[in-house]
């Protein structure tokens, strides 16, 4: 684990370039606002990063929209803020044209598609819930339950403040296991551009002690066409990589492996 | 810790469905659009709420058949007359609120989880705050104490869109106090599901009649 630590750092430091413009139906000034350019961390969540963007656009929208929740859209698709930034990028943009062009809206919140996010507490609650789920799969929840709430807080603050050491001081406990056994189940989700995400159970080892690979996971749970892209943390991981290693090194801070399946165009 | 495998959950749902039919209740089984082996149970219930009264006076009109639900909606969804300053109205208009409950399997916690959505007659979803306010007084303390960990809006694991959820992370612990079978006896999945539903359902307005236990 120690020799692969630089991979953890690389994953932590991943950034994507975005360009956010204000929805034309929401701006009510003669001159259009400048778009807002920024680099966003792959591992973070949009609501944690949008304070300055919101302030930038506030003067260009009508006062009755000032209290409204800002939501983002990519090429007509409302962005699910509760997915990590990197997952949304890999699903919707994939680097085909950079920076990733997003539109900020202040009206017509799509409440049937998007969870409401009125405060950072909502993001924290969602994040901690995912961490608990992941530990439920890896360790029957034993490790997260036995942690003190100050440790939970440290995980969250480490993520919010981009503090790798602070985060991993606690997260390494969630990555513990007996080397010969691995986790009970691997926490993963498969995401698609236009259908609900998929979550299933898979063990990191077969009964005879052989390590299960990404290829086997994909074969078991996905009907795949030729040339479909499978992207994790922005890279097409070699399909013979063991799931246990991937879970320890390529998971997001919520301790899930987020796998993006992008079918090739017909 | 009392958990269920997915197979046990499916068996329990089938039994619950059977009991529901016998009692004239309205649970139905639904399948994932992309994978027919993934199932969940669904039930819709309408509540008549007078907006000017407090939570404790909320009354539930339980509908037993789809026709009755339609009539109820018809009766109450007519828009109130625009206020006429020359007339005196005796009562504030009643509003209908529809709750749709789903019993879904939580893969991460190996237990059932209760999801639901609630909306006004206009189709507008209730906010999380409005949903919290409707939690009956006897449960308010538990929810308020641990607000962000008990009842939140989240993504439905099968449908992939926003639903409210009662967090399942403590379900196994709570259920182990109720179901104390030894490892040897086969699990009574019907008893498990009905006990579970009786614990969690009432928090969000879903009552489980005592007749469920007798079947």
Any overview of this molecule?
- Chain A: It is a peripheral membrane protein.
- Chain A: GO terms for molecular function: Atg8-family ligase activity.
- Chain A: Its main location: cytoplasm.
- Chain A: Keywords: Acetylation, Apoptosis, Autophagy, Cytoplasm, Immunity, Isopeptide bond, Membrane, Ubl conjugation.
- Chain A: Belongs to the ATG5 family.
- With 266 residues, chain A is of the alpha/beta class.
- Chain A folds into two domains: 12-105, Roll (Ubiquitin-like (UB roll)); 120-262, Roll (Ubiquitin-like (UB roll)).
- Chain A has nine helices and eight strands.
- Chain A has helices at residues 5-12, 51-58, 85-92, 120-139, 142-146, 149-160, 164-174, 214-221, 243-249; strands at 15-22, 36-41, 71-74, 77-78, 100-105, 188-191, 229-231, 257-262.
- In chain A, the strands form two sheets. Chain A has a five-stranded mixed sheet. Chain A has a three-stranded mixed sheet with strand order 6-8-7, covered by helices on one side.
- The longest helix of chain A has 20 residues, at 120-139.
- The radius of gyration of chain A is 20 Å and the shape is globular.
- The N and C termini of chain A lie far apart (41 Å).
- Chain B is of the alpha+beta class and 215 residues long.
- Chain B has one domain (6-205).
- Chain B contains eight helices and seven strands, in the order αβββαββαααββααα.
- Chain B has helices spanning 6-22, 66-76, 128-133, 137-145, 147-150, 171-178, 189-200, 211-214; strands spanning 28-31, 39-50, 59-60, 94-106, 111-120, 151-155, 162-166.
- In chain B, strands 1, 2, 3, 4, 5, 6 and 7 form a seven-stranded antiparallel sheet that branches.
- In chain B, a hairpin with an 8-residue loop joins strand 2 and strand 3 (59-60).
- Chain B is globular.
- Chain B starts with 5 loop residues before the first helix and ends with a helix.
- Mean pLDDT of chain B is 79; it is low at 52-64 and 87-92.
- Chain A binds chain B through residues 80, 82, 111-116, 121-122, 124-126, 128-129, 132-134, 136-137, 140-141, 187, 195-201, and chain B through 1, 32-35, 107-110, 124-125, 127-128, 148-149, 152-162, 167, 169.
